[in-house]
Design brief:
324 residues, Arc Repressor Mutant, subunit A, four-stranded mixed beta sheet
């Protein structure tokens, strides 16, 4: 059991952040052992032209990776360019120390610092950059949800809602990670940084026990990330709202940004926004701005309308169809 002990100031400094570099790092687990991550198989099949010899060497058989590849985000919405710039200034000594902490030694293939950094940049450009807009939308939607949970039900309910492996009995956050010896860390004014991830299945913490408290957890909605279809709104609902708006409402089972919704629909953001605004005005959607995106989610009224509009015998709000 890992324990983070939060002082009075730390309890007021539990914050969320998105880290592109952490997502890159956690995706290496998927690249190394795709069978453990079936939801991401469509993505794995698209990965081409990367230095897999270096990338696969960066994690051990447990999927652990060195801490320098999962830095504590300094801003809520960190840019990959900034994280790569910081990574470039990380000393070789620090990199090798973190590698030894995970791998026991520094493999020959990782001793060329330039090759490691170039492999990571190429990997980002080839495998993650094309999908980052959609990934970020899922992560920001998760943060919006956690913020609402904290405001409505408190910190403990929010934390326990993330995973059965996380519990909170003030002032201690407990994280259960298989195969890890128990240790305890006083936050000491550093607060607790929470980082959602689409590539982790459970939870992760720094290998360095003296590092500021950082908790990476599985984001809600990650299972929808590689979907290629949409939900068709029930005919009864379409008769009231129109097919386009019925489809949008049926498809928002998980929070999504307006840009992500537009991309899935194959239309411009401005074209879909008028429908989203109308649904929100009717009380069927809730919205919240995060960074450069507006995240939409069905309200309780919207959920009720979709569920009651399901046609007898259909068993679901709609059928999954390819986008036209």
């Amino acid at each position: 059991m890992i324990e983070f002990v939060l002082g009075e100031s730390d309890l007021a400094d539990v914050r969320f952040a998105v880290s592109p570099l952490s997502e890159l790092t956690l995706s290496l687990r998927v690249l190394k052992d795709p069978a453990k991550y079936p939801l991401h198989l469509p993505w794995v099949r698209r990965v081409r032209g990367v230095d897999t010899e270096v990338l696969l060497a960066l994690s051990d058989d447990r999927g652990w990776t060195p801490d320098f590849l999962s830095p504590r985000p300094r801003t809520p919405f960190t840019r990959i360019a900034d994280e790569f710039a910081a990574l470039a200034t990380t000393s070789t000594r620090t990199m090798r120390r973190d590698l030894r902490a995970v791998l026991g030694d520094v493999p020959a293939v990782l001793r060329d610092r330039g090759r490691v950094l170039e492999a990571l940049r190429t990997y980002w450009d080839a495998a993650l950059a094309p999908h980052w807009g959609r990934m970020r939308a899922v992560l920001e939607a998760d943060i919006a949800h956690r913020g609402r949970e904290t405001a409505q039900h408190g910190l403990g309910a929010m934390l326990s809602g993330i995973s059965g492996r996380i519990s909170f009995a003030s002032p201690v956050v407990r994280v259960r990670i298989a195969g890890v010896e128990p240790w305890r860390r006083e936050a000491g004014g550093h607060g607790l940084t929470m980082v959602p991830s689409v590539f982790t299945r459970h939870t992760a913490v720094p290998v360095d026990r003296d590092a500021p408290p950082l908790l990476i957890y599985a984001a809600r909605g990650a299972g929808t990330l590689w979907e290629t279809g949409r939900d068709r709104g029930p005919a009864a609902l379409a008769g009231v709202l129109g097919q386009v708006r019925a489809d949008l409402l049926a498809g928002l089972r998980e929070p999504r940004s307006s840009t992500d919704i537009a991309r899935l629909a194959g239309v411009t953001t401005s074209a879909v926004n008028q429908h989203l605004r109308a649904l929100r005005a009717a009380g069927l959607l809730a919205s919240q701005r995060h960074g450069r995106s507006v995240v939409y989610a069905r309200s309780e009224l919207g959920d009720a309308l979709v569920s009651h509009a399901v046609e007898p015998g259909s068993g679901a709000p709609g059928q999954s169809l390819a986008w036209a």
